[in-house]
Amino acid sequence: MSWMNDWFGAMMAASDTRKLRKELRNIDRANLANQGIVRYRPSQIENFFDLGEPLGSMVFSGGAAYIRNRAVVRAAECALSQGQAVLVLHCGNRELERSLEQYFGGSVCLVNRSNPVYDPFLGASTDNITRLTMAAAGGRGIGNAGRYYLNGMTDFARAKGVAPYGRMYLNCPHLTLIDNVNNCEASGRITGAQARQILSELMQGETERGNVESFFSTLSAQADGIIARKNETYAVNVAWAVKNGLALAVDVQSAANVQLICLLIEEAQLQAASGGRMTVVLDGLPVMAAEGLKNAVSTGGNNSFILSSDDAYADFGGDDNLFFAFMGRCTKLVVSRHNSAYTCQKFADTFGSYDKQEISSTYAKNVNYLGRYGLGASQTANVSVKRENVVKAEEIQRMATDEVYILDKATGELANVQVI
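RESULT FIELD:
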């Protein structure tokens, strides 16, 4: 009877093995379903942006720069199609400029050293010019008394019949400004009442004259290559883009040009406060580059921010609270390969986790010697559940540069696709 014991034991072991394999397949299918990743055939990145989808903040991080550029252009198209102006700030990204110009033509204005037409103060009221300057300078840049000095500068220009423009402030002769006011009164170019008001404002803000002069001196060094040369009708600014529903792309040249970046951001925030909601694209600009930029991104407000970077987490300077708060407000995330394992883990955490089922098996074998021998075996399986990232950090790090994960919060879909 020993051969029957052998046969029976072998059959039982084979049956247990088949059951285990079947259970493993079922668990794998359940894990894939719980992950919820939709894997598409190779597609164009533009196909994942619907012109009519709700607009909001987005992040395009990692991978190939040309894919991020295409995503920026498509996102800008979505914003413009829904009546939102677009402001793109970049640091010498000529490929992005070419893409914007080829796609939008006359609907986009490129501001760079080859086309210096930016004027932050063109068409702005006296109060808005002062507000923009004070905000861009930051809380410790120009004290409260500085607003009187700034108002005096602007009122002097208006009294002479000159519409305020950017380069006028950059080239202002501060040391002789009061003498110039007196000379204009003496020559009859301005009235006595106007002169008294202007002089009063300048004197009240005299203590901040040095800070005002320092601000515009720094701004001149940072923006001289893109500021309009004089008071020209073709000059543009953020208010112009909002008024005409167009896109404005500005080459800020370097993330170190803090005053210029803050001035542009404050323009966008001022328009948002007036009801002119717009989409602001930060291409390769660290969020922590300037305090004004950090505050604008962290508070959000009416404007939407799109961050396009080779490492968006690094752009937040390691501030987890700010990073995850912004990720939580985003409507779409496009993430590709990153070199930093730390950044990969942060994006893995952003994509979320799921209940992963795991199976462990126990194999038992016994042998009985009764004259001859008998063979028996058994195999049991235990299923456990643990939380695991939907997309593991190492999976992000091993991605191809043309492969992306796209999280669309409007639909709840997490897609994986190779971009063509």
